[in-house]
User: Fold these one by one.
Assistant:
Number 1:
Amino acid sequence: MPLQKHLILVGPMGAGKSTIGRLLSEQLSCSFVDVDKVIEERSGATIPWIFDIEGEEGFRDRETQAIEEVCAESPQIIATGGGCILRVQNRQCIKQSGVVIFLSTSVEQQLQRTGRDKNRPLLQTENPQATLEAMAEVRNPIYNEVADLCIDTNLKPTKLVMQEIISFIED
């Protein structure tokens, strides 16, 4: 089934955007792009390095540019970074470019899935749980605002999440 519009996955880190994006790509025989990977490839640097050198604002500038470029391409599955929705410009771009799926998850699941990952600069704090809770409070309403569909990925098999998304876009 060729995609008519982009299928754009949003949600917090550890919600499964990249994993589910790759599964959807295989199932639907279409290309998959991870915005964070695009940023790393184009800059020749890791995201933690970009955060260290340019700060979060510098990273967000690169993210906005990557989102605009990826959304200008032919329809594909796109996994965004967790904070991309913080900029109005990004929200407008993804809403206009495709079907937006919010993959939600609990802070507990996020901690389990990302706890040892050193490539998550925003979690390199003394209290990652408090950081994730604060981010969820700000970001979850925005994810809900941009989403055409919201799926809770907590303790749910990835194939089931994939099937829910496919059923939604087929309807």
Number 2:
Amino acid sequence: MQYEEFISNVAERAGLPREETEKVVAAVFRTLGERLSGGEAEDLRAQLPKQLQAHLVSPEENAQSFGIEEFARRVAQRAGVDEADAGAGAIAVLKTLREAVSPGEFDEVLAQLGREFAALADSRP
């Protein structure tokens, strides 16, 4: 999937304007970089459009452990949006990511994120 299609899909799913969508997507990938192990972040990064790869950088080899609420709080802070938009954007990114990367890679990402995140990825369209 190309960058433009990724952003358009997230914007449509989250109901956000394009400029806000780009900020939220960047914030989600930065936060995913903290939540995934370095190796898994690199594997995922390899399947993303170049414009998104720079945002997915794992600061440490070991992943940080935090739940959905903290994830949304970090995304909101980074993107400069409220937590409701951050949460909707994060769900939209996960759903779009499912379509953008190989099924095996997406399953590995969800395995690290946990059941709460997997449930969000499988929730409403």
Number 3:
Amino acid sequence: MDTPQGRRQAASQLLPTAELKGGLLPDRAGMRATGEISLATQPVWELLLEELVDGDEPVCHLELSGVTFIDVRGAASLAAAAEALGEGRRIVLWQPPASLRRTLELFWPGLSVIEVAQS
């Protein structure tokens, strides 16, 4: 007998899981992120941001062309990492999702240490 609960369990097994991958940029100081930045991938995102800002480079590059989704919590983590940078340092975002640009403009309009590169 197929119960409603049994159908729900089977459906949840077929749903894709969120994934986020990161790595160093080969040509400049910075990181690349690929995938989804959400509650499920928040620990990975925060580790990536830690590694991004851990050095002493004046410009930290963050390539986001492979990011398919970022929630407000992910944007907040990015803003917090940027605010924690030392004097004279900044984060440059390369090809961020439009939703991230809008979220930063809406919630952190005066955050001048994050710059969106025009590529």
Number 4:
Amino acid sequence: MNTNQLLDHLPAAEQRRLLKHSVQVLLQSGQRIAVQDDPAQTLLFPVQGCVSLVTPLDAHPLLQVGMVGREGVLGAQLLLGVAASPVTVVVQQDGQAWGMPAAVLRQQLPTSPGLRRLLMRYVMVQLRQSATAAACLHFHALQARLARWLLMGQDRARSDSFAVTQESMSHLLGVRRVGVTVAAGSLQAAGLIHYHRGWITVSDRAGLEGAACTCYAQDRASYRLVMKFAPDATS
């Protein structure tokens, strides 16, 4: 089982001790592993696959406000003494994670300065990325937002190809399915992606980055600035 990028940046002795108190957790596509305002029971470090951070609003479908893969962690609010999840978390791509029960986290934090530092920095990363997501939704065109979303998915899949349906993309982007169909069709006509029966292949990574809104690069820069190391990427 591969490790999580945050865990990779812990001192070796601290990493071994924390993994000894963690368990392997399977992530299955469509699974809800956290519900907004419900207490989080486990700190999760994804190592494969990715999850969508979504939020409900009135009777509208869930809207994506973030994405987490092996570059991040779920449940970082536990560091602040807050159990309630700020978002709903839905598995987007099958994978695995290291899970540390909240009670174990409380026991380990006093002797885990590296973990405390990384969790505090990652909370800041999520604050910055949430602010960017809000502005992106308001100001940027759908095709550019879709290109950004596909790059984020490709990074976390760590592959040029990954599964996603137009229906799920429409819900996550907060638009009607026909809008996603048109935007994806334009990207495919430009030779940037190939989409067939729920399977996306990124054909031209550089071209897709050029078609994406500036939020993709901004999120990566924010991560690098705060965490002091770069997030994984396919490029």
